[in-house]
């Protein structure tokens, strides 16, 4: 599968990440913090722009200092925010406190009254989908209304414009009315998409049985998806297409933290598809980008540039055996 270009419209949240500083510090012991852009969709946008692509974010941010911080950071990374709207009242941006440590790692995420959940159908109907090469979204947009219905409306409009739909399952157990409702909504979203990326737990959640995640990924491709990437952590990934399945390994690295890998993977993967790489090579490029990010502080600032990623791929001994 090849994407027609590198200009992506991305639906989902932007926020602020706080990292206890220096690296290795526990949150409860911290007196200093390092701040950077957060939110899975915003981070994917950063991953894309740093690899030479273009990204436009569609979301809402709080009408306060944290919302303005997120907007300033989007500007810093060259992400188009023409469709980022402010939400007044008690709405607040996503805020994550994330430790740069592997052992006993703690991430505390604040999503009460999230501003991005206020995104409306009017917001997504204002987008000219014909100007883009693909639409990307992450699963958090489906956690609440009106964001959920707005995203499904965006899917309809993007499909009508001929855009491939790319779905990062990104399942988070918070902000869900119930596991059953969430699984139904995610399955509905996955059935509409051309590319679905998730880990074994996320596909298992969609299947309603954590032992049947791989079967779910295969089912999505059998019913029309072009690619499903079933990630298995240190065991690599199984990439399923109508032509068959390919297993790939991971790039070993000295990790500082477990976060940011999925967002970085998505950026490297979709840029690989846009560059015309075979799907398995695009997966390996995403895996290399993920390995780089977990070895660095932060998520958005840790995303590799094109030169950094090429140097990593050129100097690393290669992926582990799948």
Entry keywords:
about 35% helix, about 325 residues, four-stranded mixed beta sheet, UDP-N-acetylmuramoyl-L-alanine:D-glutamate ligase, 13 strands, nine-stranded mixed beta sheet, globular, alpha/beta
Annotate the secondary structure layout.
Layout: E1 7-11, E2 15-20, E3 33-38, H1 40-50, E4 54-62, H2 65-76, E5 80-87, E6 94-98, E7 107-110, H3 121-125, E8 134-138, H4 147-160, E9 165-168, H5 179-192, E10 195-199, H6 200-207, H7 213-222, E11 227-231, E12 237-241, E13 244-248, H8 261-274, H9 279-294, H10 306-315
Helix pairs in contact: 1-8, 6-7, 8-9
What report would you give on this structure?
The chain is α/β, with parallel strands linked by helices. It has one domain: Ribokinase (UDP-N-acetylmuramoyl-L-alanine:D-glutamate ligase). Helix content is 35%, strand content 22%. The chain has ten helices and 13 strands. The chain has helices at 40-50, 65-76, 121-125, 147-160, 179-192, 200-207, 213-222, 261-274, 279-294, 306-315; strands at residues 7-11, 15-20, 33-38, 54-62, 80-87, 94-98, 107-110, 134-138, 165-168, 195-199, 227-231, 237-241, 244-248. The strands form two sheets. Strands 5-4-1-8-9-10-11-12-13 form a nine-stranded mixed sheet, sandwiched between helices. It has a four-stranded mixed sheet with strand order 3-2-6-7. Helix 1 (40-50) packs across helix 8 (261-274), helix 6 (200-207) packs across helix 7 (213-222) and helix 8 runs antiparallel to helix 9 (279-294). The mean pLDDT is 95.
């Amino acid at each position: 599968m090849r994407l027609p270009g590198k200009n992506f419209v991305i639906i989902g949240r932007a926020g602020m990440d706080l990292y206890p500083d220096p690296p290795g510090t526990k949150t409860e012991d911290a007196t200093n913090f390092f701040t950077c852009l957060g939110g899975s969709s915003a981070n994917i946008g950063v991953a894309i722009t740093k690899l030479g692509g273009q990204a436009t974010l569609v979301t809402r941010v709080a009408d306060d200092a944290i919302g303005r911080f997120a907007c300033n950071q989007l500007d810093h990374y060259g992400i188009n925010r023409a469709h980022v709207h402010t939400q007044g009242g008690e709405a607040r941006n996503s805020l994550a406190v994330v430790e740069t440590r592997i052992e006993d790692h703690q991430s505390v995420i604040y999503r009460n009254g999230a501003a991005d959940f206020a995104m409306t159908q009017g917001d997504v109907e204002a987008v000219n989908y014909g100007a883009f090469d693909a639409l990307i979204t992450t699963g958090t947009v489906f956690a609440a209304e009106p964001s959920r219905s707005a995203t499904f409306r965006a899917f309809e409009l993007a499909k009508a414009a001929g855009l491939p739909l790319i779905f990062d399952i990104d399942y988070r157990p918070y902000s869900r009315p119930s596991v059953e409702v969430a699984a139904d909504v995610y399955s509905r979203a996955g059935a509409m998409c051309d590319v679905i990326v998730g880990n074994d737990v996320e596909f298992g959640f969609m299947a309603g049985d954590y032992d049947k995640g791989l079967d779910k990924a295969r089912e999505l491709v059998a019913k029309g998806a072009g690619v499903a990437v079933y990630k298995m952590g240190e065991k690599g990934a199984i990439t399923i297409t109508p032509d068959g399945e390919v297993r790939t390994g991971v790039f070993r690295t000295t990790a500082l933290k477990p976060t940011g890998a999925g967002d970085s993977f998505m950026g490297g993967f979709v840029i690989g598809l846009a560059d015309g790489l075979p799907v398995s090579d695009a997966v390996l490029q995403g895996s290399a980008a993920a390995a780089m990010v977990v070895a660095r502080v932060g998520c958005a600032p840790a995303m590799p540039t094109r030169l950094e990623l090429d140097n990593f791929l050129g100097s690393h001994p290669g992926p582990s055996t799948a």
